[in-house]
Request: fold
Amino acid sequence: MPKQQWVVTVDDEHLSRLSSIAAELEAAGLTVDRVLKSLGQITGSADIDDDAAATFRSTLASTDGVISVDNSQQYRINSAEQ
Amino acid sequence: MSRYVVVFDSSEPRVRQEAAPGLLSEHGLSTGRYFPRLGIGVVEADAGQMAAFSSSCRQQNHTVSFTPELTYYAISQPPESGFEDTEEWTWGLQAIGISTAQEAGLTGAGVRIAVLDTGINSGHPDFSDRAVTAESFIEGEGPEDSHGHGTHCIGTACGPWQPGSGPGYGVAPGTEIFSGKVLGADGSGSDTSILAGIDWALENDCQIISMSLGADVREVHQPYVTAGRRALENGSLIVAAAGNNAQRSAGDQGFVGAPANSPHIMAVAALDADLQVADFSARSLPEEGGEVNLAAPGVDVHSAWTGQEASRSESGTSMAAPHVSGIAALICESSGLRGEELWEALISEAAALPDQETEDVGAGLAQVPE
Reply:
């Protein structure tokens, strides 16, 4: 199964509960990569196929204090001759 | 005939609104540009007409003055163009007004710049006496730069004024360097590493975070909306390359990509040495946050490299963003401004580029403040 990576953003009111929210996400099946304390974000992944990904994402998004769950994107250097 | 500004100096609305237009008309002066709320008008007349007008006003006990109309010009002059590298400075440093920083003794001392990129060539002789903190957020790779791009960007923002050889190429040589490797040796990386790098920069209280990276997607990526806002709230300004997806010579203006298209993240376009927008430099999106905010040198930019190559000339909005980051450090050093206020200072100090479109260059060419 493909590994899907996610960025979970926590709202301003729940920043003090960041670690416990990370634990709840982990219990829901997310392998937590990093808990970003200054940003109030949690990055992680799950081995899950594309069909199940939407449901999984909804589960993460329904966690109390979570404002958004986004798929991780890829970026490149912005030099003109790549 | 000349143009005169006529002022009815009366606190009585009746005089300004009724008597004044009547007096003007009596003497054949137009009321088309008379503003009754102010009691001020602009009229075309010859000197004799004005003298007669003035004398009738005096007879009726109205205090009136008139002066020839002046023409006003914007204070900022368009900057010079046609720059080239000299023995002393790269063209880019000349264009942003580095001599002003030199005269004022501003080097960015005491300011921390995080450059989130492909790492740093820590063995480069131009950085041997510098305070460098390097970290890698790429699994399986250390903080060293095996690509070159990261070292080039760090060089532009933080490099020396008097390097071992070649022209001075760094905007703010007194800054403390934080090199976060968020792109691997192949020049690519993901949100996971980039957000970790931003978080690390905030933990280290870096006032400026420079990101010469992007994805060619129009959609705003939500994590950077929050990240940009929280960075500003923490006193850190994120400066990002607007993107290189234009091909203007073929009629394609491109668009500002992620994460530069997020509100709270400053998007920087690239200029050439004639201060024209670069062929590849992306144009503003109509959505909030999707604007190009500023422009800076980004074509044939000489800076440090990695491996056996001590320096290289590169082009891209990647090269423009670190010029702005370096200027931000100089402003931060001299004024103590951070976050949103630092953003505003950068915008207000920019030199307008009258022959360029705002959607291509934003407020104009980033400048070291006078």
Remarks:
- The radius of gyration of chain A is 14 Å.
- The interface with chain B takes residues 5, 7, 9, 33-34, 36-41, 43, 67-68, 70, 72-82 of chain A (CB under 8 Å).
- The mean pLDDT of chain A is 93.
- The domain at 3-71 of chain A is CATH 3.30.70.260 (Alpha-Beta Plaits).
